[in-house]
Design a protein that fits this description.
Blueprint: H1 6-16, H2 25-34, H3 39-53, E1 60-61, E2 66-67, E3 72-73, H4 86-91, H5 93-110, H6 121-125, H7 131-148
Antiparallel strand pairs: 1-2, 2-3
Helix pairs in contact: 1-2, 2-3, 2-5, 3-7
């Protein structure tokens, strides 16, 4: 049985090593903790949020097409299956984590034949075949291991 908020505190402490001040570290850590993410998925999400936005929930990038701490690509006003807009994600860490976790899981399923450190390729570029996506995935894995230690998970 997990002790409530213990994982959130652990995540926030590890994330603060990378951004001692500023950002929305605690808000993102609490949203990850409240999700159904496994511990390994939580670590991946923390690494993605660091590299994509340095833990800024309201981040908007890619000329207004990528949103929230995880820079979820939503061009042309696309909405999530829940009906959320990019602006909705940027305004709510829980919604942001919900969608990012779904994308992370989908990428790991689609890219299951790749080495573990490259399985985020589809999240990054939309395909497991992209050399760039596999490189991005390896970078996020490196950050994850720096934050939390350990090898592939």
């Amino acid at each position: 049985m997990r002790i409530p908020l213990l994982r959130a505190a652990y995540l926030a402490a590890a994330m603060r090593l990378f951004r001692p001040e500023g950002g929305d570290v605690e808000e993102i850590a609490l949203a990850i903790d409240a999700s159904d993410a496994t511990d390994s998925e939580a670590e991946w999400l923390a690494a993605i949020a660091f590299r994509e936005s340095t833990f800024v929930t309201s981040a908007v990038g890619d000329h207004g097409e990528s949103f929230c701490a995880f820079q979820l690509h939503m061009p042309g006003g696309v909405r999530t299956r829940e009906g959320w807009s990019g602006e909705d994600l940027a305004a709510d860490a829980t919604k942001c984590v919900t969608v990012a976790l779904r994308h992370l899981r989908r990428s790991f399923i689609h890219c299951q034949n790749l080495p573990p450190h490259e399985r985020l390729a589809a999240y990054a570029t939309g395909t497991c075949l992209s050399r760039r996506g596999r490189h991005i995935s390896a970078d996020r894995d490196h950050i994850r291991r720096m934050m939390f230690g350990g090898g592939p998970r």
